[in-house]
Amino acid sequence: MATTPKHPLFDRNAQYGWYDYGAYEMHPANIWFVGSCVVGCSNSAGYGMNPDSPFATLDYAVGQCTNSTGDVIYVLPGHVEVLTAAGGLDLDVIGISIRGIGEGIYQPRVELGTIDTVDVDVDAASITVENINFVANVANIVAAIDVNATDFTLRRCRFTEAGANLNALIWIQDAAAAGSDRITVEDCAIIDNNAANTHFINFAGTGTQHVFRRNTLSGDWGTVAIGGAGVVTDCLCADNYVYNIAVIAEAGIHFADTATGLLINNRCSTGNASATQMGATAMVKCENYGGLIGDANGPLEPIIT
Q1: Where residue 248 falls among pLDDT bands split at 50, 70, 90?
Q2: CA-to-CA distance for 186 and 172, rounded, in angstroms?
Q3: pLDDT tens, residue by residue, 131-144
Q4: Residue (of 29, 27, 34) closest to 8 by Cα position
């Protein structure tokens, strides 16, 4: 018996009897809306199903999602969510996508404040977060995004400070062991200038197949902007632009001596007079350039002899 092919646009009978249409490959399951900027928003039953009556918080919306079905949460332009505790936003539902809508001052914001242990916990696999501005609003946040599960993706996000001495010592922290394989961070912009900072992303564990590409970093990280002491494997670090004022050798990008993968087409400038701004002894390296702050053109790393 012949069946009718499924069209990329599908209809769904919503709460109040009207139909909405969406692309099936983008929305295989439930669609939720969050918007603190919408008058009448509420974390209550009957809300969150359309942008005119959204949930008030992203954390509540995550709790309405179903594991492993591909639920999508849209965060509306102008939304602001303030986290005040450890795990203030817990991403603990497998396979969800969070998509911010809006650019510039209307890009949705997640502010981390009140205590230095405030953070976003990633506790379920295969979660994607796009187009969110993460804002440090308290001094010396220990680790702002704590990744404890596999296949976590951050895309087109911003990382900023609400003011002087409001900062994240580490913005993204992987799990201590191999529990957070395949972290992907791409097309993000980072400004974090506090001298107490240590890393933007700290690869401290033994994860594999991480991807860090097409990001722009400007700040002060006293250990390294990208990297860490963990022996990660089969990773890709490519097409990043790093400006780190710290006077530390190899403070732009540094991976453990036995870490493996590809280090390709990165540009790093730091405040250190070392001949190299990047370190990755066992990784394959190609077309990376590093130089001191103020140099017109940095030299190729490693230097061809």
Answers
A1: confident
A2: 13
A3: 999 999 999 999 99
A4: 27
- Cα–Cα distance between 229 and 195 in angstroms, integer? 20
* Tokens coding 262: 């590809």
pTM for the model: 0.89
Distance, in Å, from the CA atom of 146 to the CA atom of 282, rounded to the nearest integer, reads 27
| Cβ atoms of 121 and 147 closer than 8 Å | no
CA 158 to chain centroid: 8
Q: Burial, 70: exposed, middle or buried (Cβ in 10 Å; 0-12, 13-18, 19+)?
A: middle
Distances (CA, A) of 263 to 202, 235, 254, 258, 280: 16, 8, 10, 13, 8
- Give CA–CA dist 199/208, Å, rounded: 19
In 10 A of CB 22, how many CB atoms?
15
Tell me the residue length of the chain. 305
Neighbours of 234 (CB within 10 A): 15
> What is the torsional sign of CA 48, 153, 124, 106?
negative
State pLDDT tens for residues 50-69.
899 999 999 999 999 999 99
Q: What is the distance between the alpha carbons of residues 73 and 125, in angstroms, rounded to a whole number?
A: 16
Q: What residues contact residue 287 under an 8 Å CB cut-off, 6+ apart?
A: 264, 265, 300
Are 69 and 28 spatial neighbours (Cβ–Cβ below 8 Å)?
A: yes
* 105-to-58, 164, 203 alpha-carbon distances in Å: 18, 19, 31
